[in-house]
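call fold(seq) -> tokens
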Amino acid sequence: MLLALVFFAPVHLSENALVATDTVQWRAMAESMIQMEEETGGVALWAGRVFAGMPGYMISPELSVPQIDVLMRELRHLIWPTSHMWLLLIGMYLLAFRVSRDSFAASMAAVMYGFTTYIPVILAAGHNSKYIALAWAPWMLLAFLYAMQKRNVMSALLFAVALAANLRAGHVQITYYVTVAAGIWWLVQGFQAAREGELQSFLRGTGMLVLGSILGLMMVAQPYLSHAEIKPFTIRGSAPGGVAGGMAWEYAMAWSQGVGEMLTVLVADAYGGASPTYWGAKTFTGGPHYFGVIALATAVLACVRVRDRDTLALAIGVVAMTFFALGENLSVLNKPMFAVFPLFDAFRVPETWLSMVALLVALLAARGLASARRRKMEERPLMEESWVRVCIGMGAVLLVLNLFGPSLLSFEKPLEREQLISQIQRQYPGVSAADPQVAQVVSEEISRRSGERVELFQADALRSLMVLAGFFLLMALYHRRTLPWFVALSLALLLVVIDLTGVARRHINENSLNPAATVESSVPEYGFDAWLKAQREVEGGEGSFRVLSLEGGQHPVQNARPSFHYESLGGYSGAKLRLFQDVLDELLFAGPTGLNTGVLTMLDVEYLVSGRGAPGWQLVHQDDATGMSVFQNPIPTHRAFFVDSVMEHADAPALWAALNAVDFDPRTTAHVYPGTGLPGNIMSVESLVISADSTGGSQSNSVDLAEYAAHDMTFQVSTSQDRLLVVSEVYYPPGWTATVDGAETPIHQVNHVLRGVVVPAGDHEVRLEFAPSSHSMGQMITAAGTGITYVWLLVLGVLAWKRRDDSAGNADPEADDDDDVESTEDRG
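ret:
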């Protein structure tokens, strides 16, 4: 705990804060929801400012029923990120002690897992929910082992609590990985139990896990019922065009760990460390997955020396998850898993599997260290010891890498030469790639970069070799009985600390800190933002218009910053709605001038922020400080409007072609799919000139936005005949209801991504409201599950305490002494 506090001292003692880019992006995404909750005291379930709207529980899930993790959330406000590092280290210590029965080995395993380089890397990147889930991971595995050992209701309840805490961290991908690790352990225990005739005990333990799992899942029905509801509608649950399925293989396999890149678990900067010196195949990276040479050596020792079911389970888990981390680089395994294994296709970035590999390696290391202590080393010559052979073998590998690494590895990033040539051609148009001068410049730059990467590689290879030599010396002194075990292991622990925190400090340091005191103050506001917000108030407030921001040449999905200030087509999320992703991929930039004005008009985009304008768009504001300009759509835009005709298309490509047509005008024609359910008179309505002025328009055909909130909007409309009202909000069936004068009416999918409501002739009030039953149902189930689990735990705890007191009062003192001796022997 002291180590964690010291390591994060730069964070706690600085006036700056550990606020990373992804954290800022999240805050921008969640701003409209936070504002709504502060203003109304209600719960925000829809985020209206991002991607033209999306369910909010994918951004900031509501956890209204308190559980044990509330304590950690309160501590987080006081001492982040040390708060959850304490949670991680204590949980890992207890878990490692459970599998090693050695306090020094358990302490070392906790440090090995807590300071594996991936932890500071994700903290520096702002992946806070992943960090919290990894902190709860040892507790979940500990509860799993306890349930399999004790096989009683108390153990089932504790597993439920640990499972719920891990899931409530909000990174189900990590929980899935922990579950896979536990599943492998469970299978190994099952085979062993069958062989030893202990199947009944195994099944009883399994029954407790099933009970705990049911209660644990009940405790997280909020928000996971809603998550399950939305998944088929996101890019993680459907293919282009809204076709049900899973994520695309190529998308899911991005950031697969390279086979050669596995070397970084032993030599931290073997592949250049973090970008820009990184030269592996990934697009970019925040840093390597470095486990530490001592962790690897002692883990191998456990596999050699401690041959039991726990070691077997851990070793299988390490191998399997390493293979999974290779992703597309081991497609012969991962493609069938992706196609068949439950939920395997629900997560991306396969290298994340290595976070769980680090935990399992640390547990193996604890078992390996404990075996070295328990062996009477003086009975065998030094060179016959298993740990000596392991250290010599690993040392030989490091020595070869140090001496011959520059000739064994390329140190050149894939397609790096082509990218350099492309950069030169952009800077000097007309220059040929075959020009000798171009080739010389490229070769010199590649040589310079490679030299820098070789230096990083050799420095860390030598560093790992020295750490291994230090560990070998300490173990040799213990073998010679020169050092007692606690001194040797204390010094070895210090060596592990120096090794791992030395690499970790490259990623968490003063340069990692943000000068802003809070996350919200880290979101910049520029001059054009202030102009747009003022214009929003002039035009009627929220719901007046949307903005497409291309500031700095960024793609809208790479920048959530504008959404902090106003409604935007952009955002930052790995779980966007599939329909909106189709807009980004097939429609938004498909126009002849690079922008599809018709599609922008139907999405109520009135303003474009860019360094240069689009043909026909009028310059209305110039921000000299940023070089950005604001351009206004030449076509009037509205949040809802009547159309005078409806066209049906057989499939998504045909409908997309209609929306990409040069003459597409969303104000006159709506495009739908077969089976939309529109009445025949709407499909064949006469062509009329419709006024869709949000301020009233003509008396016979008008649309007026009366009240607007992202989750609840009301329009006053008037039409001379039955018509289709197109509402410029993303079509998402679950939870949205529409009423006309209080009577519920269907919401139709229009223009692939928008909503449509049929309105009869006359004056009417049209209201759209988002109130998903999955949220309210999840809240009730969570409250029931939490109440059952915690009350049951309390009752069992009180009864156990009472039995203990009664037993202590009635026991024979001499019998107590005998029990103590037996207990001590059992612990030994």
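Residues 19-59+524-637 form one domain.
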